[in-house]
Amino acid sequence: MRWTLGVAALATVTMCSGSMARAADSLTGQQIVIKGGVTRPTDGDVKAVGNDWFTYGAEYQFGDPDAKAVNGIELLYTKKSDTVTNVGTLGIPTDYSMFSLMLNHKIRRPDPDGTTAGKVFFYGAGVGVDFIRVKMDDPNPGGQTIDDKSTVLGGNLFAGYEFSSNVQLELKYQIPFKKVNDTKFDGLQLLAGIKF
After folding, report:
1. Whether the Cβ atoms of residue 193 and residue 33 lie closer than 8 Å to each other
2. What is the mean pLDDT of the chain?
3. Which residues pair with 33 in a beta bridge?
4. CA dihedral 132, 123, 117, 35 (to 10 degrees)
């Protein structure tokens, strides 16, 4: 597992090194995108805690944010806490949370008239790591207390629209590549973003 994570980290550094070098030449093109929205899990066990989870975070974009291809580093935090109740049992306090650290590659599709700032469709994908925590305290007879913290490789696919040079809306599918506590954490995210 350490070897796999090491290879992934090396690949991530290699992919973004060119962008960071270009960014160092010109600070005027860098941007931060503050994001917030909801995540809808696709797995039944995770959905039992709630269908809609709050998600927020930020993405740091290298180079010219109005270029046709943009690389960025993104950190998103997703969390949901609730009491899961099954028939004939006491409720189980459950807490799921995930930090996603991704290197994203975005392709922007300018308008036919060549406009590249605002009113632009975009799509792309990312790879990185997900830091996932599963915490449950089962009060039923024979119940277990679980506090599982795992780091797994993950990725995402996304598409969206830039309404202006400062506002965007994004639909993202987050994909951790491994289950945690025998639970999948894949989810569909709807995120609004404000760029600075």
Report:
1. yes
2. 79
3. 59, 195
4. -20
> CB–CB of 101/75 below 8 Å?
yes
What is the phi/psi pair of residue 134, to 5°?
A: -120, 120
* Those residues with Cβ within 8 angstroms of residue 26's Cβ, 6 or more apart along the chain or in another chain: 63, 64
Distance CA 96, CA 179 (A): 13
Two tokens at 62?
Answer: 């290298």
Amino acid at 68: K
Residue 147's pLDDT is 84
Distance CA 4, CA 6 (A): 5
Query: How far, in Å, CA of 16 to CA of 6, rounded?
Result: 16
SS3 112: coil
The alpha-helical segments, DSSP class H, found in 26-145 are 44-47
**Res 4 pLDDT > 90:** no
> Global pTM?
0.75
- How would residue 114 be classed by pLDDT, with cut points 50, 70 and 90? low
Find the radius of gyration of the CA atoms of the chain: 19
